[in-house]
Amino acid sequence: MDELLSEFVAETQESLEALTNVVVALEADPSDRARLDQLFRFFHTVKGSCGFLNLPRFERLSHAAEDVLSDYRTGGAVPDPATISAVLAVMDRIGELCVAVDSGDSLPDRNDEHLIATLRHCHEVARATREEGKARADMSPAGGDAASRAAPASRTVRLPLVLIDQLMNGVSDMVLARNELARKLRAQGRQPETDAAFERLSACIADMRDTISKTRMQRVDRLFMAIPRMVRDLSRELGKTIALGIEGGDVEMDREMVEMVIDPLTHIVRNSIDHGIETPAERRAAGKPEAGSLRLSAYQSGSQIVIEVVDDGRGIDVDAVVAKALAAGAVSERDVARLSEQEKLDLVFAPGITTARQVTAVSGRGVGMDIVRANIERIGGVISLTSEPGRGLAISIRVPLTLTIIPGLVLNAGGLNFAIPRSAVIEILHDSNPAVSVARLGGALTATIRDTRYSMIDLEEVIGVPMAQRPGPRSLMLVRSASGIPYILAVSQVENHEELVIRPAAPVVMAAGIYAGMTLPDNGQPMLLLDAGGIAQVARLPLVAETVDAGAAREDAADRRAASYPSLRFIELTGEERAIRLSLVERVEDVPVEQVLTSGGHCRVRIGDRLVPSPHPVRADQVPPGARVVTCLRIRDGVRELCYPVHAVVDISEVPVEMDLSARYGIVAGLVLIDGRQVEVVDGFALMAAVDGAAAEEAARQVRCVIADADDMWNREILAPLLMQAGYDVRWRRQDEPADEGDVLLVTAGEQDAVAAPDGNGPDGEKAVIRLRAHAAPAGPADTSIYRYDREALLGALSSFDGERRRA
């Protein structure tokens, strides 16, 4: 019986979640017979089941709602808003009873009869009004028949979530075992047959991991399910008219991610309705439609889910936000003077800041967007605002697809290894860096980085272990706190970055407040995952970020900058440690191996729908077995862009301007000493020149195909795309224009008399002509034209001419 009861509660709760939107839609269109029938069938099913399970309160509530809805189905009338509100109240009570039954708690029934009486009263009033002769929409039963003939639901199996988690844990163990096997195979040397079998095993494990990961996925419909009801209730409470639009409900994301985004999204929607969208009178005065627009959408972008909330309300008054931030002490007048408009807008995320004009039951109590951002960033997400005063506000939330596997950094403190989500780390420096100054003020550590002072804490102090003695500088990690204000977390060293498999930690561990779970890296040794926000709270850090204006400090910083510059240190694929100016590096990202392409001795990296040049190709022996991504430096000189594949990024360091120039070669400008090690410095000028020169050389050597008739549809829609896909530069000219030297002229056979150029593939400035005929068979023995649908012959002729040019 317990199993049947649990099944009944689970199915009833799922149906209630889905039916909330049905009721809201029925209120908007009371003549929709299909939705009325769907609602009736729910109460009918609940009534029948709870009689068998001995649930009298369920039975009384559902029976009353069934009677009222049955009258509407057979009486040809439509339900009025008051009756629909009463039905929603009954559904809410059934939901409360489900929670009570599931938890084993008791729920007082003193209001059950009141709900039933209210429902019947609303129904009687509606019936009396209809006898008075008020017109009602005619409802044909055809809609119900069509609904009953709807396609059957897909077959499903209900599984406990713990079982799915166990499956995922098992696959994660297989991944770790595979990684250990890979290390042993590398130690034994390459064995082609064994390597091939290992690759097949890796592919099977990857497929299994992806498949099981999908069982954790849920449609975003689950996230949006409560929004229509909330919009309905709030708009009525606040006297506003709101048109709601929802898109992208079929997008899928991890079930844990759905649960963690529900609260922030609910808060954002409430804010939009309360002090974003104006009242009908205010909208009329502003020349807007009385009904405000609120649109929610979701879509997948790479490995992230993007959720957007857009309204056409009043937007955010940036000046008012700045004034409240100044009054709250979140910023100073001096800081405000240096802020951009976007940074001023982002002050709405500061603690205690609200854009509400007065405190209401809905919002305006100063606990809002700071908590929303903290919750979003805690799961590795990012939130951003775009405001147009008087026209509306757009809020964009980017979150990972799943929390099960996240990119993370492995670090060491007190001789122990820990992990931290990469999204929580803003910057990593060494305490020996000239741009860093560590001091103790009033018993608390602070670190000043580029004239900004942050609170600082040693991780060893938080976890209660002695600081291990090791040579070399300590690593200072600038991380985000729960309030959004960063602080410095000092550790022995940051070792590497990995894709981390996240698992829940024991309750006694989580009770410490500084861990977000545990993970198993490639070496198979369990590590605890640090919670950056929790560490700040447990350590009671005074979270401030102050600008240091001391003249002496500024002069010292200027002297240090004059003698050095920040650079990104990295390990080449060939093993050398090098550094490049940080200002040239736009970003560092992992690119799938299959997107690094080599053709004709030149390497390119596919970024989106673009091919970005690379200074050198990536050989197969430079990529570890089983690796799926290559770390790339995205380098830009303001005009040109290139992707620089590397083995790993080490750190950001200050590189002295003076270097050993005797070691200059290729793209290396010279040698410097960093932390006692020799590091080669990349010459940005030589690097960009090499890539630019290779591109220019390739472009100069490339055959240019000139098509004589741009107005011909076949030339424009079929021939030109074929040539461009094959990598040729396609140009157009009129028949009376001469071709440039080295070009290949493509004409139809009927145009040959108008072409004043000899046949041939000569490399010495001769103009080659390729004639294309419309018929498969040649006109005779002397016909040297090519059938225009003979792809191999056409591309072969172009390749032959290209080869002659290259040999020349």
From TrEMBL:
Keywords: Kinase, Phosphoprotein, Transferase, Two-component regulatory system. The keyword Kinase applies. CDD domains: HPT. This is Chemotaxis protein CheA. GO terms for cellular component: cytoplasm. One of its GO terms (molecular function) is phosphorelay sensor kinase activity. Residues 130-150 are annotated as: Disordered. Residues 152-403 form the Histidine kinase domain. It comes from Sphingobium jiangsuense. Residues 1-101 form the HPt domain. GO terms for biological process: chemotaxis.
